[in-house]
Amino acid sequence: MANILVHIELSGDRISQASLRILGLGRQLASELGATLGAVLPCPAAPSYGEDDHVALLSRYGADKVVLVVDPRFSGPCTFPTHGAALLAACQRYPPALMLLAATPAGRELGPRLALELGSAYLPDVARAHFSRGELEFSQSIHGGRLVRRSDAARTPAVATCLPWNELLAVGDDEAEVIMVPAAEADTRFQLESLTPQSGGLDPSFVRVLVAGGAGVGPAGFEKLESLARALGGALVGTESACAQGLLPKERSIGLTGRRVAPQLYLCFGASGSADHLRTLRGDPVIVAINTDRRAPIMKVARYALVADATEIATHMLEALANGHISPGDPFDGSGVTATAVTEVDGTLPHPGAPGSFGMAGDLETLETLDGGPAATGEEPSS
Amino acid sequence: VKLVVLCKPVGARRPVIDRQSRLLQSSQSFHISPLDRLACRLAQELRGPGDEVIALSAGPPQVEGFGDALAKLGVDRVCLVGHPVLMDADYFALAHTLAAALRHTGYDLVLAGETSPDDERAAVPAATAGLLDVPHLGAVREARWVSPDSAAAPVADGAAASEPAARVLRVERTLTAERLAARLTLPALITVSPEVQLPATAPPSRPTPPPVESYDLDVLGVQLQDVSPRTKVVSHAAARRAPRRGGAELMSDAPSLVAALRRERLI
């Protein structure tokens, strides 16, 4: 039987929410393919066995096997010199048809090296993976979000890093088989000197909740948006015009010359939603538009809209959040999830095997495809 | 010490899709990826007396015209590899070509921009490091030479001219939740974060243009099967976010919006 392996990242001593979502994708594909789903977990110490340990959690989220690689060095950063040999050892033990990683900084560093070592195809930043006419097909956004490329692996195994927030959590049983794989030697040419936890802002490229401000929001408004982003466990970004006005530093800019983002929830305050702005959004986020102009383009693509002043709504949202229970989001470089926290979520999810039990918010369903004809021509903006 | 900067040629024109949904690279001219420029600046900051900074680029045959732009980066040498097969090259094909070129030119420290405007995956540098079997660290924000004996002691100017074995690169990177400091022995490959710390003023450029060298794949020992794509493109399509059917659900106030988001377990 074919194997699908999913790399599980730890965030501190907890399993990252992003990895659990990729495990959900793996469960869906494994069920369609009739494959075994293995969760590969490099961890610094063998987990204690109990209701809320890592193995039980991964079992509940769909893993058939949990491949544990235990070594104290896995308490450090997830890089290829430290973690690569462990993943390769797992791949040797259970040769995968497909290896999935979350498109996190760690996943992006590990993915190409793993693919190289395995002699496999590499598909980075996959927005959607599904079977089409019996072939596993991957969709990726390329050229600054202007184009969608659909491809399949000409070679197997395939290694793919996937945008996590498109994926739903899966539900499995509690009886995953546990396999211990010895940790191979680390690469001694890389010597970790120090690792300091950062308490500052989260990296907007990798958070689940993103609050964005446009040029229509003044300095006082941006202070409110920063508080709102913090209250939601997310990050704050600005449009290029807002950053050009000095309302946020340039590294917080999204747009053609700024960063690309792939949140699950995108709260957009006082920005019109130009085509270039919307192209920076990867995957299929839930867009919330708060704008005084009801005809702004962002209103057409938003799921929820509020025609109102951005600062005022941000203030009222903070009040509303303070009045009720709120669980901060799980930015995958920030906090992970505990078994208890996840149990609260998974109660509403269907069981694997049920028709339509696994879903992916379909990135391409929201992308209009133009049949034939040139997609885009002309000069690129100079950068 | 040879510091080699991988410079990606970014097409100066937008790509075009034909009626068979194939991607046509219509560019005849290229510009340098802005993040590779940062990598080049960092290489110049790390250059000690006697060190050499080389700009290396690989791509379709038109990349030969890219030499002039690279020559203006203040490097000591420009190396180009152009071949039609690299027009549709995937990550590994480019990595194979770059690794072969690096073996040909020699290298101690390889630098590259983290991503480029037309591709944001940082796959080529990582794969190149794998092919060269050198350690790789991404998203580097700071880099400086330190003595192999002491992590903190910076290498003095005179010592910077010494052999690669006498130098260790101390790098720092900041991701969301952690700030990492590590030491890399040479040879090594680093990719440079957009937020890399650099002095405000660039070092003075060379008084004379650097030599530009071109290599053929045969000379580098790259076989065509090494650069055959490992993925099969099914189609390309223009992407734009389609309007939601029925439009957005209009909320009356902030509390109702918060309630709706809670209902969907989005917050």
Total DSSP helices of chain B: 7
Strand order within the widest beta sheet of chain B: 11-10-9-12-8-1-6-7-13
> Quick check: average pLDDT of chain B?
83
Distance between the termini of chain B: 52 Å
| Residue fraction in strands of chain A | 25-35%
| Major pleated sheet of chain B | 9 strands, mixed
Give the overall pLDDT of chain A as a whole number. Answer: 77
Helix content of chain B: 10-25%
What is the C-alpha radius of gyration of chain A, as a whole number of Å?
21 Å
List the helices and strands and how they pair.
The complex is a heterodimer of chains A (383) and B (267).
Chain A: E1 3-7, E2 10-11, E3 14-15, H1 17-33, E4 36-43, H2 54-60, E5 65-70, H3 80-93, E6 96-102, H4 105-118, E7 121-132, E8 135-142, E9 147-153, E10 158-162, E11 177-180, E12 190-197, E13 209-213, H5 219-231, E14 235-239, H6 240-244, E15 253-254, E16 265-269, H7 275-279, E17 286-291, H8 297-301, E18 304-307, H9 310-323, H10 339-346
Parallel strand pairs in A: 1-4, 1-6, 4-5, 5-11, 6-10, 7-10, 13-14, 13-16, 14-15, 16-17, 17-18
Antiparallel strand pairs in A: 2-3, 7-8, 8-9
Helix pairs in contact in A: 3-4, 5-9
Chain B: E1 2-6, E2 9-11, E3 16-17, E4 23-24, E5 30-32, H1 34-46, E6 52-59, H2 67-71, E7 77-82, H3 91-105, E8 109-113, H4 123-132, E9 136-146, H5 157-160, E10 168-174, E11 178-185, E12 188-192, E13 212-215, H6 217-220, E14 231-238, E15 249-250, H7 254-263
Parallel strand pairs in B: 1-6, 1-8, 6-7, 7-13, 8-12, 9-12
Antiparallel strand pairs in B: 2-5, 3-4, 9-10, 10-11
